[in-house]
Amino acid sequence: MFNLRQLFAFWAVVACLIGIAGSAKAQMITVSTAGVTHSRQNRGNNLLNTQINAADCAGDDIMTFPLTLSGAFSTDKLQAWVGTGCTDPGTRTSTTQTQCWLVANVSPSGLLNGAINLQIPVTTIVAGYTNLFNTVTVNGTAGAGGASGASGTSGTSGTDASTVAGAGGATTTTTVTTLGVGEQVMDDPKFCMQPNPTEVVAATNVTIYFMLVDPSTNAAAGSATWAGLFKLVGPAAPDVVSAGIGGNLLVVSFSYSASPAGASSNDQTINGFNVYCDPPPGNAAAVDAGLEAPEAGVGSATSCGVASSQVLMPGMSPPTDSAYLCGSGQKTSQTANARGLVNGVPYNVAVAAVDTYANTGVLSQLACQVPQPVTGFYKAYRAAGGTAGGGFCSFSRTRQPLPLFALLAVVAGLVLRRRRVA
Amino acid sequence: VKRFALFLALGVLGVCRGAHAQTDEFGSYVNNGGRRGESSQDAAVELRFGRYVPSIDKSVPGSPYRDVFGSSNRYIFGLEGDWQLIRFPHLGTLGPGLGWGYTRATGNARITATGLPSAEQTALSVMPFYLVGVLRADVLAREFNVPIVPYAKLGIGYALWWASDGGVTSREDGVLGRGISYGPQYAIGAMFLLDELDQQTARDADNSLGINHSYIFGELYNSNLSGFGSNSRLNVGTNSWVLGLALEF
C-alpha cells in the first residue's frame, strides 16, 4: 500500500507535469505580415513586401520580420526555417532532406519575450529553391545500380550520391547537397542564380516558419508562418523584332513566335517591355559615336548595315546604364516607340520583357534602322497654309468669340425664364 | 451672326406655354397634347453613330487630310440629351439639346524625302460638342397613329481637336497641334416609333422605367466649325449622316 509520503510525491509529479504542459501551451509567436520590411531602397511602388525579385537578391536585401514572443523558456531557440512542412521535427533533423533549411537561429541567451525584429537575408530565403541543394546529374557508364553514399554529418553539409541503372544499361549519378542538423544557411550571392532560367515562367511560393524550438526535443512549441513569392528571372525576350522609320524615333515591333513548350512567352508575369538603343538617345551620344557632326542635329545615313552592338548583346542582360533605355511598351503592346533619336543616324535596338516583379529579362536579337524626317497630318496642314493650333485656350486676335457669347446668353435666358415660371 | 443668335434665342424663349404634368392617385398625366395613361415626358436621349469626315480640306489649299489619312470613311460615336422644355399643342416639343461625340483618324506619316509611308503613326482626334434647339414634331404619332416623328435641330457646334505624331501631340514651327473650332450646326431627321412594334412592352417600359417612347432614327446634319469664317480655326465640322437609338422619358 502507498503511504502518505509516496502519495504526496505522486501528486507532486502529476502537478509538475501538468504545469509544464500548461506552460508549453502558453508559448506563442506571432509575425506581423504588414510590418515586414526590406532594407533595399527604391524597390518601386508596385513591388509588394511579399514579393522578392532578382534585384533584391543581388542587392543584399535583408528582410526584417516583426515578431512577438510570449511564454518562451530561457532554453528555447527562436528559429526561422524556409520550405515546406518545417514544423515537423523529423524533417528538420533529417540529414538527407532538402525541403527545409534554417535561415535564422537565435541563441537562448539572446531570446527575450516581447517584440523582436528578426532579420533574414533574401539570399538565404531563396537558397533552397536555387543552388543550396546542388543537384548534379551525370550520365555514367553501364553498370549495376549502386547504394546510397554516405550522408553528411551533423553540423556540416555533405552529399548523398546514388547510382541508378538507366535505360539501355547507362547509369545516372545524382549528387545532392544536404545540410547538417542545426546548420544555418549563410548569405551567399550564388543563391541568386536560378537553375534552368528559361523554364521560369511564374513566381514561386515561399513560406517561412518562425518557431520556438525546444533544443532537447527539437519540437516546435509555438510557430507562425509568413508567405511570400519570389521570382529571380525576367521573362524571355520576344523572338521577332523589327524597327520601322519615324521622325526622330523608331517604331519597334516585337512579338513571340509560336511558342514551344516552356517558352517564356507563356510567362503570365510579363508586365511590359523595354526598348534599348545603341547609340543612346540624344544628339550628344550620336556625336560621341561619330555618327553626327557637332551642331548638325542630323546624321547623313539613310540605311543601316548589319545590326551589331558592343553594348546590346542578344541573350544577355540589358546595360545597367539607363541612358540606353529609349522606349517602353505596355504588357499587351506589340510596338513601342524608341524616342529621342537623331534623324540620319543608324540605331541598333533590342527589346527586353519586364515582369510584375520588376525583373528585366534578357535582350532580344538586334534590329537596325535610321530615323528620318516624316510628314504627319499637322505638318501637312501647316505646309498647306493652315494656321490653326496653339492649344485649347487660344483665340484669334482678329476676331472676337461672339458666337460663344451668344451661346452663353441663350443659356442664361433659359435659366432666367425657368426661374420665372417656377 | 447676330441674326442667328437672335433666332435661336427667340425660338427657345418663345411665348409658347410649357407643358405641365398633373398627378393624381393613379400617377401623372400629360394634360396638354399627351396621351392619357402615359407618365410625364420631359427629356430625350440619343445614342448616335455615323460617318464623320472633317471638312479640313475645304478650308486650306491642297488636301492635307486626304493625303495623310486617305479617302476612306471615318466614323463617330456620340450621345445627345434633350430637355423637352416646351410642348406645342398639335405639333410637338421644343427645347435645348446638348451633344457630345468622339472620332479619330489615324494613318502613317510619310517619309519627307521619299513620300513613302513611314512606320510612325499620325492621328487627328476630334471631340465635337454642340448646343442646339430641338423641335420634334410628334403630332403624327400622337394624333394620327403614324409612327414617324420628323425633327430639326439648329444651334452652335464646338469642337476640341488635337493632332499627334508617334503618340505625342504634334508641334510645328513651335505651334502646338491642338485647338478649338466652332460654328453653326443644323440637322434634320426622322425617328421611327418602335412602340408600334410591341405596344405592351412599350407600356411596361413606361410603367417600370418611365420610358415613354423609343425610336430608331436617321439624321442629316451639317456643322461648319470654321470659326465663322476664321482662317485660324481648323474646320473639323462635317456634312454627314448619323443613325441611332433615341429614348424619351
Keyphrases for this structure?
heterodimer, A: 422 residues, alpha+beta, five-stranded mixed beta sheet, four-stranded antiparallel beta sheet, 7 helices, 20 strands, 17% helix, B: 249 residues, mainly beta, eight-stranded antiparallel β-barrel, two-stranded antiparallel sheet, 4 helices, disordered N terminus
Structure description:
- The complex is a heterodimer of chains A (422) and B (249).
- Chain A has helices at 4-26, 54-58, 89-93, 122-127, 283-288, 377-383, 402-421; strands at 28-31, 37-38, 51-53, 62-70, 77-83, 100-106, 114-121, 135-139, 158-165, 171-178, 204-213, 220-231, 240-245, 250-255, 270-278, 325-330, 335-338, 347-355, 367-369, 374-375.
- Chain A has 422 residues and is an alpha+beta fold.
- Chain A has a five-stranded mixed β-sheet. In chain A, strands 1, 2, 4 and 7 form a four-stranded antiparallel β-sheet that branches. A four-stranded antiparallel β-sheet of chain A has the order 16-15-18-19, with no helix packed on it.
- In chain A, strand 13 (240-245) and strand 14 form a beta hairpin.
- With 249 residues, chain B is mostly beta strands.
- Chain B is built from four helices and 14 strands.
- Chain B has helices at 2-12, 64-69, 139-143, 199-209; strands spanning 21-24, 27-30, 43-51, 75-83, 86-88, 92-111, 117-136, 148-165, 168-169, 171-172, 175-176, 178-193, 213-223, 239-248.
- Chain B has an eight-stranded antiparallel beta barrel with strand order 3-4-6-7-8-12-13-14. A two-stranded antiparallel ribbon of chain B has the order 1-2.
- In chain B, strand 10 (171-172) and strand 11 form a beta hairpin.
- The longest helix of chain B has 11 residues, at 2-12.
- Chains A and B meet through strand 13, strand 14, strand 20, helix 6 and helix 7 of A and helix 1, helix 2, strand 6, strand 7 and strand 8 of B.
